[in-house]
Design brief:
2 copies of one chain form a homodimer. The first copy, chain A, has helices spanning 29-41, 61-73, 90-103, 121-135, 148-151, 157-166, 181-190, 206-211, 226-234, 241-255, 260-271, 289-301; strands at 12-15, 46-47, 108-110, 142-146, 171-176, 197-200, 216-218. Chain A has 313 residues and is an alpha/beta fold.
């Protein structure tokens, strides 16, 4: 494969967009498009659709492709999209990555195959390399998705190094959802001069990440608090940066007291006045009513709001 | 749904059939059918195709359905089949389970959704219940697949109890691959009178399982050593049972020194004189040549063989 040509890469705040379901648990493309529009209107530079918080692995490849096509058909810029395309099955990852490239997405966020645990570095390298080779398109920008607390399959730095050496320009960065700033910092240091864009997996680390050369964050709470998080991204060199960071960290801490996905959906349901948003697919379960009341109360007390959400069309 | 009618259930030794791949990593239906025939000729009462050792989660739903249909087309009795049909995505599990029932498979072996960790009992219950409800067919026999060392999502006994109460006759049993005999024993005791068939996940526990009311085993090494394991099943009440058990345990211990899936494939490649069998899909990797030589040497020294494998058509 020829080296990829230079091209402006995505940075800033990306939301791993939560996926709305109907009462029958089918994906709701219309609500999905509306929420994506609101996010892009309110500070997100991009949409990491089909991430962990999207319940992406609870959806079939076909269901995800339909949602992706619905977004593009609705006029959402493909350049703002970084869909999750990593599956346990090689052929599923290839299929979805190929389609994302064909649609012009700015990149893909790729989980390692996550069924087998304790796999070798060689096996992990081959997993990503095989997808890249089969897609065989220099427009591909692949962001590695490191989320050991959920996947239970970490991506070691040596594997990243080898992928970067073999596929420079294609392997474009990482989302670090380890929750461990030292891991993020180590990647920023080791891959500083290799066009490897590091995104924090939580806005809690956004300011630290930017100060050390990172490119932004891809964060669950980007679904509900994009403007405030984006402000930290835009003003991180300013005198007020630490205070702004403290604000978004405080909101995050309210939300992450509860299971994140149902908490995000309950927040959108409440502030968007749209109860259908509460629905999750098994194995997840909705918040208990008392949990939701406590969450909303705490968010309101902190001055949190989602302006325009109930009006978006 | 009406209660399921009585029907003879599968028992004995089932192999989670390893899946052969071509040089391009595509599933090889012809080799798959041949290996299934050999297994049924040589002592397996059933085939738990698409299990962990089948690299099932490294295959797309479409690839698995093609293999399943190829088996049935080739004349393998559907009554001998217990395909794995549990996926992370609800819709994938429903699609594959429905097809297995349509083809007349004796049961399905169902993983819980395994991406999200630490899910609630309620969420796990809903995961299985939703598949059962959507398939909506009284011919369904669902065997729960408890394999926490790989899935990292255990199936608690309280969830099993609730499923059995809600879907008696449909929820038919469990494969216990915890590696913990005390867990197997506890299920045998708790669900003794509820038509719940417990299969050990390794032949190491076969005799213990049968002596306490279990129905057999579904075991990786069933792929290479079916006759000897089946003999323990057939003669477990005999005077020689402990000696026979010690023999199959010894063979197991040789194989499990190495990563099981590539070890099984190397064994089949060697004793079947068919090098293509060595191929695995990422994230797995083949054995090193030195590992294979040591394995084969140790198996030969123990008198192990796979008679008829090279001749099967």
């Amino acid at each position: 494969m020829a080296p990829a040509r230079a091209q402006k890469r995505i940075e800033g705040v990306l939301a791993p967009v939560v996926t709305p379901f109907g009462a029958d648990l089918s994906p709701d493309a219309a609500r999905f498009v509306r929420h994506c529009r609101w996010l892009l209107d309110r500070g997100c530079s991009g949409l990491a659709v089909f991430g962990t918080n999207s319940e992406a692995n609870s959806l079939s490849v076909e269901e995800k492709l339909e949602l992706l096509e619905a977004l593009v058909r609705a006029g959402v810029a493909a350049a703002a999209l970084m869909p999750g395309t990593g599956h346990c099955a090689l052929t599923d990852s290839v299929k979805m990555t190929r389609e994302a490239v064909r649609l012009g997405c700015s990149g893909v966020l790729m989980l390692p195959p996550f069924y087998y645990k304790g796999v070798s570095d060689e096996g992990l390298f081959r997993s990503f390399a095989e997808v890249i080779e089969r897609v065989g398109d220099e427009r591909l920008r692949l962001y590695l998705y490191h989320i050991p607390p959920v996947s239970n399959v970490p991506i070691p730095h040596d594997v990243i190094d080898r992928l970067l050496s073999r596929y420079p320009g294609i392997v474009a960065g990482v989302k670090d959802s380890s929750g461990d700033w030292q891991n993020t910092r180590a990647m920023l240091d080791r891959f500083r001069d290799r066009a490897f864009d590091v995104f924090a997996g939580s806005e809690v680390f956004l300011l630290d990440n930017l100060r050390h050369g990172g490119k932004g964050c891809i964060t669950a709470t980007g679904n509900v608090n994009p403007a405030a998080i984006d402000r930290v991204f835009r003003e991180w060199r300013g005198a007020d940066a630490d205070r702004l960071q403290a604000g978004i960290t405080a909101t995050r801490k309210i939300l992450q007291k509860l299971p994140m996905i149902p908490a995000l959906k309950a927040t959108i349901a409440h502030f968007g006045n749209d109860p259908q948003w509460r629905t999750v697919r098994p194995p997840l379960t909705e918040l208990e009513p008392a949990q939701e009341r406590a969450l909303v109360g705490e968010l309101r007390a902190a001055g949190f709001g989602m302006p325009g959400l109930a009006e978006i069309t």
